Amino acid sequence: MTTLYDGFRGKVDLLLLALGVLAADQWSKWWIEQTLVRGVSKTIIDGFLDLTLVHNTGVAFGLFPARGELWGVLLLTVLGLVALSVVLIYFWRTPAEERLLLTALALILGGAVGNLADRIAAGSVTDFIDVYYRSYHWHTFNVADSAITIGIGLMILEILRSRPEPEPEEAAAADGAETG
Predict the structure, then answer these.
(1) Which residues contact 14 (CB under 8 A, 6 or more apart)?
(2) Which of 8, 15, 27, 114 is the most exposed, having the fewest neighbouring CB atoms within 10 Å of its CB?
């Protein structure tokens, strides 16, 4: 019988990575809430990067904003919990040897928990990183969003990474097992 511990054996370092992402995300959001006034930007790199406090009631990039309506906040919270559960199960079932995939999942896990904690506590997610060029602004985001994006990028890399061809005798054995 597989225990809960068996699913996480050899992955503690990656769970610590997820915890580190969560801590960095929550600390940075706390700091920005203490430092900035909503709607007032602080230039970090002129013409490229500002810190701007935004409360996002929607999902990524401000899509589907709940606008403070209880049903919208509850729906986005439930969807976040479902997504988090899927990532956690995938992490648990992935073999410890698949380090790149597990790293990707740990980054996504830490980021998802960070944004979900905001949504549960405040009904919105705190965003503050404002990247732009001239009048072209990317959507304001946070540390959790960055971790999720990097994690998804690593998952894509893992998918695209070439797999070694099976040895001829392994392929023959597999074919025999399928037909027998």
Answers:
(1) 91, 99, 102, 103, 105, 106
(2) 27
Amino acid at 167: E
Label residue 2 left, alpha or beta by phi (over 0 means left) and psi (-120 to 50 means alpha). beta
Torsion, Cα of 36, 109, 151, 93 (10° steps):
180
Write down the catalytic residue from 25, 50, 127, 130.
127
Helix or strand holding residue 125 (H, E): strand 125-133
Q: Are the beta carbons of 58 and 118 closer than 8 angstroms?
A: no
Q: How many Å apart are CA 64 and CA 25, to the nearest integer?
A: 22
Query: What's the rounded Cα separation, in Å, for the pair 76 and 123?
Result: 9
Catalytic annotation present for 130: no
Amino acid 151 reads: G
**Global confidence as pTM:** 0.80
pLDDT of residue 2: 55
With beta carbons less than 8 A apart as the criterion, state whether 150 and 107 touch: yes
- Cα separation of 91 and 55, whole Å? 30
Alpha carbon 4 to its chain's center? 22
Asked about 145 being catalytic, the answer comes back as yes
